[in-house]
């Protein structure tokens, strides 16, 4: 999609600190980290949110979660724990309307909301 930030990162048109990449998935450090480890995982295909991705290409969600597990281990938070979340829609705080999975860890995280 022409006007989508995460499509541009996936295409390499906008730089990011990439920590993991496959044919279908790319993961990069969040530009404004909310925890010591904050990685954003996206499918390279464009879908507006996680539910749209689930409907269009459900297997890709499996790939995102498996990649998140690998990244958590690589970042050293696999044992201590980490949070995985999809913000879905404006009221949830979604600001980039390309489905993405946040991986947060490296500290004791507070309660949601
Ligand atoms: P959302 O709020 O939509 O769930 O998450 C979007 C995330 O993308 C935010 O945590 C935000 O900091 C991050 N972000 C926004 N612009 C950029 C960027 O240009 N590069 C990177 N690496 N992250 C970004
Ligand atoms: Zn996109």
UniProtKB/TrEMBL annotation:
GO terms for molecular function: catalytic activity. The active site is at residue 100. Signal peptide: none annotated. SUPFAM superfamilies: HIT-like (SSF54197). Residues 5-113 form the HIT domain. PROSITE patterns: HIT_2 (PS51084). A motif (Histidine triad motif) lies at residues 98-102. This is Histidine triad (HIT) protein. It comes from Actinosynnema mirum (strain ATCC 29888 / DSM 43827 / JCM 3225 / NBRC 14064 / NCIMB 13271 / NRRL B-12336 / IMRU 3971 / 101). The lineage of its organism: Bacteria, Bacillati, Actinomycetota, Actinomycetes, Pseudonocardiales.
């Amino acid at each position: 999609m022409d006007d989508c930030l995460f499509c541009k990162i996936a295409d390499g048109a906008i730089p990011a600190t990439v920590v993991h990449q496959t044919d279908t998935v790319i993961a990069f450090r969040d530009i404004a980290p909310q925890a010591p480890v904050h990685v954003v995982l996206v499918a390279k295909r464009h879908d507006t949110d996680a539910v749209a991705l689930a409907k269009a290409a459900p297997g890709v969600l499996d790939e995102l979660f498996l990649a998140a597990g690998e990244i958590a281990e690589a970042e050293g938070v696999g044992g201590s724990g980490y949070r995985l979340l999809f913000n879905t829609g404006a009221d949830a705080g979604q600001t980039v309307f390309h489905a993405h999975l946040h991986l947060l860890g490296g500290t004791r995280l507070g309660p949601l909301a």
